[in-house]
Amino acid sequence: MNSTARSIEETLWSRHANPKSGWTRVPTGPLIVYAVYRRDFRLLTAALIWTIVSPVIFSPPESHEAWMTRAVLAERWWVREQRNGTIGLDYPNVYNAGGAIAFAYALVAAWVCRPIGAAVGWIVASALKLWWIAVIVRRYDAAYEKDPSQLPSQ
User: Fold this and answer.
1) Is the pLDDT higher at 94 or at 15?
2) Which pLDDT value is given to residue 90?
3) Are 31 and 110 in contact (CB under 8 A)?
4) What is the pTM of this model?
5) DSSP-assigned letters across all residues of the chain
6) Which of 1, 28, 57, 62 has its CA 20 to 30 A from that of 10?
7) What are the tens digits of pLDDT across the range 30-45?
8) What whole-number distance in Å separates Cα of residue 153 and Cα of residue 60?
9) Of all residues in the chain, what percent carry a pLDDT higher than 70?
10) Cα within 13 Å of Cα(107), Cβ side
11) How far apart are CA 33 and CA 84, in angstroms?
12) pLDDT category, 154, cuts 50, 70, 90?
């Protein structure tokens, strides 16, 4: 990766690590499902645009104390430094795989106007995603305690 691309990547990750970026993305899941259910393509477009824009508009966090900051940094560490994927049949990536399947189910249920199925699918997807994040944050925190130099900078 060239230096310009690396600099852009560093900027995006550091801005996305702002807890406001992470927490404001959480409600986009139900908004997307609701937009599909209502066939509201303006709301769907707005939710998708927010998903793209939110990692860019916030300034980098002042510290790594916030759980959501560590969640974003842990994801980056998990993929880049630990060379892991995010979806798979191995632990903990199976949670993300299950979450992706549940979210796809939620979208299909929304499309065929099954609101309870859509809500349950989204709740399961969100729970599995947060569970996956919690596992990698614990691993990130444990690695940070052992050797702070191996973790990505803010």
Assistant:
1) 94
2) 94
3) no
4) 0.86
5) --HHHHHHHHHHHHHHTSHHHHHHHTTHHHHHHHHHHHT-HHHHHHHHHHHHHHHHHSPPPS-S-SHHHHHHHHHHIIIIIS---SSSSSTTHHHHHHHHHHHHHHHHHHHTT-HHHHHHHHHHHHHHHHHHHHHHHHHHHHHHHH-GGGSPP-
6) 28
7) 999 999 999 999 999 9
8) 11
9) 95
10) 11
11) 29
12) very low
| Cβ atoms of residues 86 and 75 within 8 Å | yes
Do 128 and 95 touch, CB atoms closer than 8 A?
Answer: yes
Q: What residue type is assigned to position 48 of the chain?
A: L
- b/e sequence 44-80, b meaning 16+ C-beta within 10 Å: beebeebeeebbeebeebeebebebbbbbbbbbbbee
Contact present, 53 and 15 (Cβ < 8 Å) = no
Q: What is the pLDDT of residues 53-83, one digit of tens each?
A: 998 899 999 998 999 999 999 999 999 888 8
Half-sphere exposure of 148 (CA within 13 A, CB side): 4
